[in-house]
Write a structure and sequence with these properties.
Layout (H helix, E strand, L loop, with lengths): L7 H10 L7 H13 L2 E3 L7 H12 L13 E4 L4 H8 L5 E5 L10 H13 L4 E5 L2 H5 L3 H15 L3 E5 L8 H14 L3 E3 L11 H18 L4 E3 L7 H14 L15 H16 L12
Parallel strand pairs: 1-2, 2-3, 3-4, 4-5, 5-6, 6-7
């Protein structure tokens, strides 16, 4: 892999430019529906229960009970313990089950434990595995080990897709973000993901732009599409639509699909629903008018 050096000033300036784009009212509704279809609804708390997971699944399948025409969310993301619960509740709805594994969120567990964690989630029915890299190994210069770990976890995934979480807020520089993304892709990632949502800063337009450029360059070289998932900190529909503009202008329309772009932002969903309801009814709604799950 050749090293790519990032001009951080120019990257941030370009990322900021997407916030200045205006979206026509006629296109706004379709954009919001697309955002909705790209959301991974997530519950990753110590107090998670089977019923909480089932409730979130019902929310993913029918985000707004007053508008059955809306698309489903893309996926439910849970700990391996709850994969079977989510799988049973979602049935044939088309909503995927994603599971964090590999010692989430630290990535510091022994590799054997992380591999077993992955296999258990896949055996329980996970369609996608969200793994987190060891930032300690990466920053210590042991990038070959990081590559090998990703490759082994990819093998353990079988037919499940692998989303590799880089935890960009801990990688310190844009050069490191780009190097980690390129490494993950080379090791077999189906998606590169910014963050666990447990570390600040999480997703930003700047780091997401770096990931988009990484997958774009990989596509130019190989013809293979790799997905991108910004996660953590994206709370408003207005900001999410800006991400769609950045996706379109950086990698093109092919990536404007849940198969290649996701939002890891559960709190985003109700703001999207609020904006869609306003477009439909002409009235402003409150977030409280929509269930959390």
């Amino acid at each position: 892999m050749s090293k790519v050096t990032i001009d951080r000033v120019m990257a941030d300036r370009r990322a900021a430019s997407f916030s200045a784009r205006s979206i026509k009212t006629g296109s706004k509704g379709e954009g919001l529906k697309l955002v909705l279809s790209m959301v991974d609804l997530t519950t990753l708390e110590g107090q998670d229960t089977p019923e909480k997971v089932r409730s979130l699944c019902r929310k993913a399948m029918r985000p707004d009970s007053n508008d059955p025409s809306l698309p489903t969310a893309a996926a439910i993301c849970v700990y391996p313990e709850f994969v079977a619960v989510a799988k049973a509740e979602l049935g044939d709805s088309g909503v995927h089950v994603a599971s964090v594994a590999t010692g989430f969120p630290s990535g510091q567990y022994p590799l054997a434990v992380r591999l077993e964690d992955t296999k258990r989630a896949v055996e329980a029915g996970a369609d996608e595995i969200d793994m987190v890299i060891s930032r300690g190994l990466f920053l210590a210069g042991q990038r070959g080990r990081v590559f090998d770990e990703i490759a082994q976890i990819k093998e353990a995934c079988g037919s499940a897709h692998l989303k590799v979480i880089l935890e960009t807020g801990e990688l310190e520089t844009y050069d490191n973000v780009r190097a980690a993304s390129d490494l993950a892709i080379a090791a077999g990632a189906d998606f590169v993901k910014t963050s666990t949502g447990k570390v600040a800063p999480a997703a930003t337009m700047g780091v997401t732009l770096i990931l988009l450029e990484s997958v774009r360059d990989h596509f130019i070289k190989t013809g293979k599409h790799i997905g991108v998932k910004p996660a953590g900190g994206i709370r408003s529909a207005k900001v999410a639509v800006r991400y769609l503009v950045m996706v379109r202008e950086t990698v093109g329309d092919d990536w404007l699909t849940p198969e290649l772009f996701r939002f890891g932002a559960s709190t985003l969903l109700n703001d999207v629903l609020m904006q869609l309801a306003r477009l439909r009814t002409g009235q402003y709604m409150s977030r409280d008018d929509f269930s959390e799950a």
